[in-house]
Amino acid sequence: MSKIIVLMGAPGAGKGTQARLLQQRLGLPQISTGDMFRALGETKTPLAEEVRAIQQAGKLIPDELVIRVVEDRTAKDDCRRGYILDGFPRTAAQAEMLEELARRQLKKLSAILIDVPLQLLEKRMTGRRSCPICGEIYNLYFRPPKLDNKCDRHPEAELIQRTDDRQEKVRVRLETYERETAPLLDYYQHTGRLHRVDGLRSPEEIYGDIVKILNEEVVRTNPAN
Ligand code: AMP
After folding, report:
1. What is the pLDDT of residues 77-101, one digit of tens each?
2. pTM score of the predicted model
3. Which of 179, 158, 162 is nearest to 10 (CA)?
């Protein structure tokens, strides 16, 4: 049965980094609602302006819109073998919709929590920078680029900071996470689908932990393997 890999964790925990590695190495599409709405925010439509304002304030985009975007994206052909969700679900309504979607698509859901202590997240977010060309994620404190503020692979490009990673927005996002999203962890835990990985390890080690979890699940589902 193909799989929906749900990467859970607070903003700054490293979901995007892991989603990119999983996409590159397992060949499953990474579906990042944050990236999709950032791209939408750059278009010149009235909806774009609304989305941009919500994102820049660090608030959540209304469930109805997020749900429509995820339904649309996951209906595409490249999702047939499974997909990786990064930044979705974030509310109870989104989690309910995802259950329904998984049933309809005959996919098994695995939630993986990248666990990072709250007090470290602020630095992770304010230090985060990314390459405007390849999307590679760096961190000024924890994973600095080789040259000052330049991508290792695209030194012609200055790294960029997301507007919502600025100090004043980071608190709002962490509060929103605690209030709306953290309760979903209990739900996945109670239904036996939550796996935790230590988010303080290196990206490669965390990736190794995630792949181990995914492989163990395959063995449990198909004991004959
Ligand atoms: P992210 O890149 O996942 O940190 O998301 C950045 C911003 O996009 C969030 O702070 C929200 O404004 C918006 N966003 C992304 N995913 C969702 C979601 N599942 N529900 C509501 N808003 C979202």
Report:
1. 999 999 999 999 999 999 999 999 9
2. 0.91
3. 179
- Residues identified as active-site: 15, 90, 128, 162, 173
User: pLDDT for 126-162, tens place per residue?
Assistant: 999 999 999 999 999 999 999 999 999 999 999 999 9
If you measure from the C-alpha of residue 224 to the centroid of ligand 1, how many angstroms do you get, rounded to a whole number?
Answer: 40
Ligand 1 center–CA 90 separation, angstroms: 8
Best CATH choice for the domain 2-117+180-221 from the list 3.40.50.300, 1.10.472.10, 3.30.70.3090, 1.10.10.10: 3.40.50.300
Query: CA torsion sign, 56 to 59 to 62 to 63?
Result: positive
| In the predicted structure, residue 65 carries a pLDDT above the cut 70 | yes
- Listed as own residue / partner, the contacts of 211-219 with beta carbons closer than 8 Å and 24 or more positions apart are 213/110, 213/112, 214/3, 214/5, 214/110, 217/110
The label of the residue with tokens 């791209």 reads 39
Q: Categorise residue 205: left if φ over 0, alpha if ψ from -120 to 50, beta otherwise.
A: alpha
End-to-end CA distance of the chain: 14
Structure tokens at 66: 């997020």
Which ligand 1 atom is at minimum distance from the Cα of 88?
A: 19
Q: Is 225 a residue whose pLDDT tops 60?
A: no
Tell me the CA–centroid distance for residue 219 and ligand 1, in Å.
33
Where exactly are the structural domains of the chain?
2-117+180-221
Model pLDDT, residue 141:
94
